[in-house]
Specification:
single chain, 356 residues, alpha/beta, Rossmann fold, Alpha-Beta Plaits, 2 domains, six-stranded mixed β-sheet, five-stranded mixed β-sheet, 15 strands, binds adenosine-5'-triphosphate, binds magnesium ion
Length: 356
């Protein structure tokens, strides 16, 4: 039997230490019952939240949840259909120019000019934003250093890898020293190493500049490591908002045991559910069970004993803390990862209106 503890795997949260945000910090972003309709379809439905100055705030949700639409409204790229949003103290509908001056935006699609060099791309943006010549030079040199592209400054953008282009775009979004930085899925499509490099850049930039960051993602680990608070959006609605820690604590059961058995009997799920501390059991695939429990070590012992007594071979066993994946399933009844969308009956009694 193979026992895996995934909590020690990968990078620890402390390597991306989040700076604390003062409780009395003023609001950088205020979104109040904002709505976006496309004809009869409501893409964003009465969403409200505030983001404090200096905070890294994550919008987490699956494809089509409304993340980009929310960002486009907050950054004045599309008009809002209802409600209101204030960014850097300015109303997005009434004072869009003031909002634009205060923000930097990295859209979901890569938009740097492929035929220009890295430095030319940055220069054009700095000129567009009227950054004075001397400041421009200094700021670009500093940003190139921060995103680790100094030695590529003269390279044509089309020769860069996807991760490097993302870093160039992050630098480009900061050339005019904005106060609030919006990033729409900055790591989607990147390999794991490039993703971590982008996280490092963002953490680095945050430590150097006074910046509020709003980031969208559908990667749970990214939101968990980077964000002070996370808003989970699904079908245009806000379904949960809190710190990653509080969100995880809000799910019944604080540990997850993933256990794979060989030929378990038909009533195995039922028997697992009856073990002390267990709050839910999902039969993920043949023989594979995901058990949420309030007592990871106790339930693990009981589960192993039960399997031995029943003569059911245990093939793999993995124990970990509740993840944001469990939070998402808890609040929406679905898994975040598109390819694994399936019904989890255990959330249905709590949210009877939701369909998988
Ligand atoms: N211009 C538009 N006209 C009609 N419907 C739109 C338009 N833009 C977005 N939508 C719809 O609004 C919903 C939200 O889209 P949005 O792009 O905000 O999702 P998202 O959360 O950013 O998803 P993804 O993770 O795929 O980027 C989707 O159902 C989308 O099809
Ligand atoms: Mg999007």
């Amino acid at each position: 039997m193979e026992v895996i503890n995934t909590n020690s795997g990968g990078l620890s949260a402390s390597e991306f230490s989040k700076s604390d945000v003062a409780a009395d910090a003023p609001n950088a972003i205020e979104v109040d019952h904002i709505v976006k309709r496309y004809g009869d379809f409501t893409a964003v439905d009465q969403v409200s939240f505030t983001v404090k100055e200096g905070e890294i705030f994550g919008l987490l949700g699956p494809n089509g949840a409304g993340k980009s639409t929310l960002i486009r409204m907050m950054t004045t790229l599309i008009p809002i259909s209802g409600g209101a949003a204030r960014v850097a103290g300015h109303d997005v509908a009434r004072n869009p120019n003031e909002v634009r001056r205060a923000i930097g935006v990295i859209p979901q699609a890569l938009t740097s000019d492929l035929d220009l060099t890295v430095e030319e791309n940055l220069n054009i943006y700095a000129k567009l934003y009227d950054v004075p010549a001397r400041e421009r030079k200094e700021s670009i040199a500093e940003l190139l250093e921060t995103v680790d592209l100094t030695k590529w400054r003269g390279a044509q953008t089309k020769t860069l890898s996807g991760g490097m282009r993302r870093r160039l775009e992050i630098a480009r979004g900061l050339v005019h020293s904005p106060k609030i930085f919006f990033l729409d899925e900055p790591t989607t499509g990147l390999d794991p190493v490039s993703r971590v490099a982008v996280w490092e850049m963002l953490t680095n930039i945050k430590s150097k500049r006074k910046l509020t960051v709003l980031i969208t993602t559908h990667y749970m680990d990214e939101a968990d490591r980077l964000c002070n608070r996370i808003a989970i959006v699904d079908h245009g609605k806000l379904v949960a908002l809190d710190t990653p820690e509080a969100l995880k604590a809000s799910v019944p059961g604080s540990n997850v045991i993933e256990a794979q058995f060989e030929h378990p009997p038909a009533d195995w799920e039922e028997r697992l559910r009856k073990l002390p501390g267990v709050t839910s059991v999902q039969n993920e695939s043949a023989g594979m069970f995901r058990v949420l429990t309030a007592n990871g070590s106790g339930t693990t012992t009981n589960l192993v004993e039960m399997a031995m007594v029943a003569g059911v071979p245990l093939k793999t066993l993995m124990v970990q803390n509740t993840t944001l994946d469990d939070v998402f399933v808890h609040y929406t009844g679905r898994q975040l990862r598109d390819e694994l969308v399936k019904a989890y009956s255990f959330v249905m009694p709590q949210r009877p209106g939701l369909q998988p």
